[in-house]
């Protein structure tokens, strides 16, 4: 079973599931056959747990602070912990963390093949090089957080300046031959499916035609490209109108999650 196409859900509309250890989770997407998942985890103040990881995990701190082994992870810190490594983690004050779990059998996420990573991302410099000229209207910059071994995928922060609207009235949609996954940290972006605001999430399997995208307000998002360390875009021949004002029209989203962003809603 492949991971389903979800485009897009405002995660504020996904209910929390409470667990006996005091954590709460929002499972956004997953493949029950491989164990690959994307979820938000809320750790209570005073939480501590140990063990060994049964699959590789990427963590991004949305709120609060977390310890992963001896590593302290504050706001917007990123970490990768390989399968077979320590799962020891704790939080004195509580934390909300976005977690990308690799599959149980993913050979590229095993300790010894994949190295642990811990990054204080606010201290990183932004890279404005090598972006496709067709996306110049978004005025993009990125911070590459991880490149997986054997071309297994890239995780990065992506930001675009406000006023990201081209002079043209139409743009070409695009397609990638690898999966693409995104969580919106702040700001907003228009897509044909509607306005993605803070807390928006999508997962696109390979081969999904998408866009165009514009951003009057600017945005900050964390993105992954499972299956490729370099994004290659296949631009379509046709032109589509700029999606400003498009009504919310999600694809693959459960009906009970399918509501647009509510101003002031927390994840």
Task: Note the main sheet.
Answer: 7 strands, antiparallel
β-strand number: 22
Order of helices and strands: EEEEEEEEEEEEEEEEEEEEEE
**Residues in helices, as a percent range:** under 10%
Q: Provide the CATH top-level class of the largest domain.
A: Mainly Beta
Mean pLDDT: 95
Which oligomeric state applies?
single chain
Pfam family, one: Cupin_7
Protein name: DUF4437 domain-containing protein
Domain ChrR-like cupin: 8-101, 139-217
Short description:
The protein has 267 residues and is an all-beta fold. The chain has strands spanning 6-10, 17-18, 24-30, 37-43, 47-49, 57-64, 66-68, 71-73, 77-81, 89-91, 95-101, 117-120, 140-147, 153-160, 170-171, 174-175, 180-191, 194-197, 200-204, 219-226, 234-235, 240-241. It folds into two domains: 6-123, Jelly Rolls, CATH 2.60.120.10; 133-244, Jelly Rolls (Sandwich).
């Amino acid at each position: 079973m492949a991971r389903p196409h979800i485009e897009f859900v405002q995660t504020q509309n996904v209910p929390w599931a409470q667990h006996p250890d005091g954590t709460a989770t929002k499972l956004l997407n997953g493949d029950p056959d491989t164990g690959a998942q994307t979820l938000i985890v809320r750790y209570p103040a005073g939480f501590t747990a140990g063990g060994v990881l049964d699959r590789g995990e990427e963590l991004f701190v949305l709120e609060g602070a977390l310890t992963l082994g001896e590593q302290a992870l504050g706001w917007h810190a990123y970490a990768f912990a390989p399968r077979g490594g320590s799962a020891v983690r704790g939080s004195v004050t509580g934390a909300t963390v976005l977690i990308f779990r690799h599959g149980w059998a993913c050979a590229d996420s095993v300790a010894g093949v994949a190295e642990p990573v811990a990054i204080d991302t606010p201290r990183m410099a932004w890279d404005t090089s090598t972006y496709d000229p067709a996306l110049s209207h978004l005025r993009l910059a990125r911070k590459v957080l991880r490149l997986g071994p054997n071309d297994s995928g890239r995780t990065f922060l992506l930001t675009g300046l406000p006023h990201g609207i081209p002079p043209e009235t139409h743009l070409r949609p695009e397609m990638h031959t690898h999966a693409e996954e995104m969580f919106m940290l702040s700001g907003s972006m228009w897509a044909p499916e509607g306005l993605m605001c803070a807390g928006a999430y999508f997962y696109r399997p390979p081969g999904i035609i998408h866009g165009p995208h514009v951003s009057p307000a600017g945005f900050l998002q964390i993105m992954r490209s499972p299956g490729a360390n370099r994004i290659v875009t296949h631009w379509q021949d046709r032109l589509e109108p700029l999606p400003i004002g498009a009504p919310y029209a999600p694809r693959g989203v459960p009906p009970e999650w399918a509501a647009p962003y509510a101003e002031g809603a927390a994840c």
